[in-house]
Design a protein that fits this description.
about 280 residues, alpha/beta, Rossmann fold, 2 domains
């Protein structure tokens, strides 16, 4: 398995730079076709205090949207051309102007989606619902942190393993990265003996399966010790100096997450390193 079609979702000029810093080298490494995608909102009818359509406001909004889309496209095409990679541009105008939601149909035909983690400090009018790509596309999503630099060589990979369907999908979706990494650690947290597995060797089967693909894999078991799985994973990332986290994404009920939190939610918000998630 490898990545042959990569989708870069670009919402603004600011996140486009960070996404392309990773997506372009990955496309070059795997000989992949890179698609850049951006959506803009339709200029909504605006009525003046006198009750008449404010055509000047509508025209100004349309011009600003077209200019932003043109700038992002120019950036994408210039950078792809300079690296000599196969690439294509797709744009859309719709009511939401949300590049992530608008890209869902295209995303389902791609091997890998690259998008920036949601930046809580960004203009709320330009935020994209990046979680929709994770929960609705059916494809692996590589999230680029908005606040830390990323080395897309991905030499050290941490695979958060809980034996779930989502974790299994993520592990094999990330196989091209895992095979190329200098080190991959399979981490199981808070595992107990049950009918399906022995806690003492939790993660051993997936580690062995990945090793058969040529990956350099170790596995370990640990305990969150009351701090939560998300925080425990972050601590292990820091300890091993991982530059890529791989994990399955699952959502508990909203009420349960409110009281107890959730590893998916925690890591989508904090994200200390690039993170590949699958659903």
């Amino acid at each position: 398995m490898t990545y042959k079609t990569i989708l870069a979702v670009l919402q603004t000029r600011a996140d486009a730079e960070r996404v392309l810093d990773c997506a372009i080298p990955l496309a070059a490494r795997y000989g992949a076709h890179l698609i850049g995608f951006h959506a803009e909102a339709m200029a909504m009818p605006y009525v003046s205090p006198m009750g008449f359509p404010d055509t000047d406001f509508i025209a100004a909004s349309e011009e600003a949207n077209e200019q932003r889309s043109a700038e992002i496209r120019a950036l994408f095409e210039a950078r792809c051309s300079s690296e000599g990679i196969s690439h294509g541009w797709r744009a859309m105008t719709n009511v939401s102007g949300d590049s992530a939601v608008s890209a869902l149909g295209l995303a389902r035909a791609c091997d890998l989606i690259v998008v920036q983690q949601a930046d809580p400090n960004a203009d709320s009018g330009l935020l994209a619902d990046v979680e929709a790509l994770l929960f609705e596309s059916g494809r692996p999503v590589l999230f680029i942190p908005y606040a830390v630099s990323v080395d897309c060589a991905f030499r050290k990979v941490l695979l958060a393993w809980n034996g779930s369907q989502q974790a299994a999908r993520a592990a094999f979706d990330a196989l091209p990265f895992i095979r190329a990494a200098e080190e991959t650690e399979v981490l199981s947290l808070d595992v107990s003996d049950d009918a399906d597995q022995d806690a003492a060797v939790a993660g051993a089967d997936i580690a062995a399966a990945l090793a058969r693909h040529g990956a350099k894999v170790t596995y370990s078991a640990g305990f969150s010790a009351g701090i939560g799985a998300g925080e425990a994973i972050e601590n292990r990332i820091a300890d091993m100096r991982a530059d890529l986290l791989v994990m399955g994404a699952y959502s508990q009920s909203r009420l349960k997450e409110f009281f107890f939190g959730g590893a998916t939610r925690t890591l989508l918000q904090s994200m200390p390193v690039a993170t590949l998630m699958s659903r």
